[in-house]
């Protein structure tokens, strides 16, 4: 289970270092095999998912009927853009240049552990998202049942 927030710096080649606290978890969860793809719901964010969890998600997404536009967009952003990566000896992974450019992830970013995957946010996109508040009119029935 991945959780927590870590400031990350991309090197000149577009690599990030998986924080040391997560490296053993990544190795166990995925035999050091990760998949990087777009977050289909939020601009400025990539998903980094262990390969096993990724394969389950990929199969579910690919099973959606391709006759609906929203399904094709989801398939394009998740499956079509998916890149397999493995941390090197220093725990670094190379983020595809096209994904970095499309999301605006540059030198400084934020890595969030989101349970079964990581989210990698560009620093400014993360700051904007973290400053958002949830209004009363946005609270869903599921949220209302939480003991916050």
UniProtKB/TrEMBL annotation:
Localization terms from the record: Cytoplasm, Nucleoid
Gene3D superfamilies registered for this protein in UniProt: Transcriptional regulator MraZ domain
InterPro entries hit by this protein: MraZ, MraZ_C, MraZ_dom, MraZ_N, MraZ_sf, SpoVT-AbrB_dom, SpoVT-AbrB_sf
Keyword Magnesium attached: no
Keywords: Cytoplasm, DNA-binding, Repeat, Transcription, Transcription regulation
Domain of life: Bacteria
Pfam families named among the record's database cross-references: MraZ
Protein family according to the UniProt entry: Belongs to the MraZ family.
PANTHER family reported in the protein's UniProt record: TRANSCRIPTIONAL REGULATOR MRAZ
Protein name, per record: Transcriptional regulator MraZ
Native species: Dokdonella ginsengisoli
């Amino acid at each position: 289970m991945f959780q927590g927030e870590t400031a990350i710096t991309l090197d000149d080649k577009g690599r990030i270092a998986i924080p040391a606290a997560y490296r053993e978890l990544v190795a166990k969860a995925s035999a050091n095999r990760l998949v990087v793809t777009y977050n289909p719901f939020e601009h400025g964010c990539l998903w980094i998912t262990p390969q096993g969890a990724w394969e389950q998600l990929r199969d579910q997404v690919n099973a959606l009927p391709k006759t609906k536009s929203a399904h094709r967009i989801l398939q394009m952003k998740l499956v079509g853009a998916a890149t397999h990566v493995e941390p090197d000896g220093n725990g670094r992974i190379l983020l595809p240049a096209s994904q970095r450019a499309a999301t605006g992830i540059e030198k400084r970013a934020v890595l969030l552990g989101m349970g079964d995957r990581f989210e990698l946010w560009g620093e400014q996109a993360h700051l904007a998202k973290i400053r958002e508040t949830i209004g009363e009119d946005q609270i869903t029935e599921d949220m209302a049942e939480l003991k916050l």
